[in-house]
Amino acid sequence: MPIFTVAARGALVLAALLSAPGFAQDAPVRFVVPYPPGGAADQIARLVAQEMSKAGGAPIIVENKPGAAGMIAADHVARAKPDGKTFFVGSNAPLVVNQALYAKMTYDPARDFVPVSGMAKSPLLLVVRHDLPAPDIKALIALGKQAPGKLTMGSAGTGNITYLAGEYAVSKLGFQVTHVPYQGSAPAIVGLMGSSTDMMFDALPSCMTQAQAGKIRPFALLDDKRFAGLPDVPTAAELGYTGIDASAWFGLVAPAGTPAAVVERVNQEVNHALGQPDLQRKLTAIGAVSMPGNAKVFATFVQAERDRWLPVARDLGLKAQ
Predict the structure, then answer these.
(1) Is the pTM of this model over 0.85?
(2) CATH for 267
(3) Would strands 29-33 and 60-64 be described as parallel, antiparallel, or unpaired?
(4) Which structural domain, as residue segments, surrounds residue 209?
(5) How far is the C-alpha of 170 from the C-alpha of 191, rounded, in Å?
(6) Residues 84 and 164 in one domain
(7) CA 120 to chain centroid
(8) 185-218 pLDDT, tens per residue?
(9) DSSP per-residue letters across 21-86
(10) Which InterPro entries is this protein grouped with (predicted)?
């Protein structure tokens, strides 16, 4: 039996991918991102697409279609031809949270898509405007309790995990805020830097650089361990606030009816890219970690997120704004 090298196995995966429908050299593949450029979803999708492109094959176009808590892009992909040419960069909001917030949706997250692969995830960070008169999270809570609803909380949009996890966290911390939704994390962080809002729970890729530069102040990481890029920022649990960990995550799904062979081959190519040290370094640099695994692993993960967050949204009585 011949012994294949890692390079040879990678070549076989690439050859299989190139022979799949929609991955011909002359047929560009689209990764549709439901948020504006600059946010976590956009950065991660572009990094993965760039790494995949190094192996050759069809060019990958990252297309931004922001709006309606990710539902414009989700509906667009759900209606696309299931030929392996169009994929949705799905995340917490369009694949999970929107089900609890919207009475009517033009697509069914479980029925209209087939999971392909996880890409990356990032813990949320509690950040406040640089001139907020509160030196730490304890003072922030006290400030919030003094005037319920006076503090404003930006988010990447209604339905986004930055909204749901933020509302859940402040409810656990014992104060109230007024929600200010933006169309994506990037504009929300711009609003926070300009003191248009007071605070935000955001994924690291879209807020870490500003936090490191002192343009906004980081108070707590919603994860089980500190992040190397912000070594002085404690976790919420370290500060005594447990049970509020949350992450933004991103992965590929395809229109329902996409052939299983295509799903498997694209999954292999995504995982090949995620396994490259260069991509892993780039993800770490922006505050994300890879989410490797087959399509079933990603499907199980998404279902677990539904089981956790949908009851939370309903218990809080959150609705689309």
Answers:
(1) no
(2) 3.40.190.150
(3) parallel
(4) 123-239
(5) 20
(6) no
(7) 8
(8) 889 999 999 999 999 999 999 899 999 999 999 9
(9) TT-STTS-EEEEESS-TTSHHHHHHHHHHHHHHTT-SS-EEEEE---GGGHHHHHHHHTS-SSSSE
(10) BUG, Bug_dom1
